[in-house]
Amino acid sequence: MAQPSPTSTQPAQLCITAEDELFDEEFLQTWRREGFQVTYIPFQSDRKSYIAALDAVKHGLRVSEVYAIISFGDAASFCLTHYLKLPNTNKLCALIAYYPTAIPGPASQYPASMQVLVHLANQTVNVHYPPSKTGHKATVVRKQVGPGVGIGDRLALGYAAFSYVGALPGFAEHDLEEYSRIPAQVAWSRTLGALQRGFRRVAAVDLERVWDEMQEDSEASTTTASPPPSALYTPTLQGATGHHPLQDFYATNFHAHRPASMRLQLLSRTVGADRVVDEVLITFRHSQPMNWILPGVPPTHREVKIVVVSIARLCSGDGRLYSEHVYWDQASVLVQVGLLDPGVVPAGWPRVQRVPAVGGEAAAAVLAGGVEGETKIKPHLQYA
After folding, report:
1. Residues annotated as region Disordered (predicted)?
2. Would you tell me which CATH number, out of the four given (3.30.1330.10, 3.40.50.300, 3.10.450.50, 3.40.50.2300), belongs to the domain 207-337?
3. 0.85 exceeded by the pTM?
4. How do residues 322-359 score in pLDDT, each as one tens digit?
5. E-assigned strands of 133-229?
6. Burial of 127 from C-beta contacts in 10 A (0-12 / 13-18 / 19+)
C-alpha cells in the first residue's frame, strides 16, 4: 500500500500507540504486510515524554515525506486533542482513533491536509466542547455512542467517525476477548482507505490486475503465508480454507474443469482499498456436475443464466488473497434446472398462489437495466 515518494527509499512511517507495553502482534504485522514501517509507542502518564516519543517518529523524514498515527483507547483520546492544535500536526497526514474514551465536540475541525477517522464501539465517551464565548469554560458531556446514519453508521461530527454499536471497546485487537472479526475488518478497511488518502498513495500492487490473474491460475490465488486464504460460496456453503485446500477447490471447480459452454461477462467492478467487488453474468449449460453451484445434482442439460457477486479481499501490500465471498440467487438456479417450480406451493400456505422465485428473468432484468414499473414484481406474492 504505502509506496514511498519517488525521492525516498523508505516505506511510509506508521506509529501505533495504545496503553499497554505490548500490543496485538497480529495487528502490527498486518500493517507491515501493507508496506509500512511500523513503530509501536506505549501511552505514558508523563505527557512530555509521550509527546517526545510521538514526535520522534517523524525525525529523519525528508521534505516530501509524512507519517500517520493509529491510536487506541486513552492514547486515542490524547491524540485527538493534541493534534487539534495546528503546530502539532507538522508532517502528520492521518490520525486514526479506535474507541477513544473522549472525543472533541461535533464542531471541532482538523487541518484539511490531515485525514482523521474515529471508530467508536458500544461505549460512553466524554465529549469536549470548547468555550462558547471568551472567558467561558470548556464543558464536558458524557454521552452514549448510538447508531449513526445509514447502514454504515456514520456519526454527525466535524470529522469522519463511525459507530460499531454491536461491538465493545477492544473489538479490533485479536488478543482480547472483545475481538469481533466483522467490525474489525470493516474498521480496518476504512483505516486503510484513510491512510491511502493521507499518504496520497495507491496500493503497492494493482489489485484489479492481481485479481484477474488469480481467476486464471489457481496457484496464483493462494499462498502459504498467514492468515490462510479462504473462499466461501454462500448459497451452497462450498469453499475451502488454507493454501492447498483452496488451490484444489479452485482447480476442480473452475479453470480447466468448467463446462465448455460457460461464459462470464463482467457487469460492474468496484475496487476499494483492500478488495475487488465484481458483478458478473454467468451463463452455462448444466452438462456436467458443478458442485460449487449444484452440489449433488447430476447434469440436467438445462441452460442457466445468473448474476453473481464476488467480493475478494486482498492485501494491498503484496496482493495475496485473504478471502473471497460469493453470492447469487440460488432459487433462480433451482428454477432454471427444474428443481423448483414457483407454481407449486407447499401445503399449509393456502393464501399463497405462487412461490416468490424467478428463473432466468432475474439476470435478464439486470441486463435490461431493471423492470418497468413496480407491478412487474408483484405477481410472485399474490393472495387469494
Report:
1. 214-237
2. 3.10.450.50
3. no
4. 999 999 999 999 999 999 999 999 999 989 999 999 99
5. 139-144, 160-164
6. middle
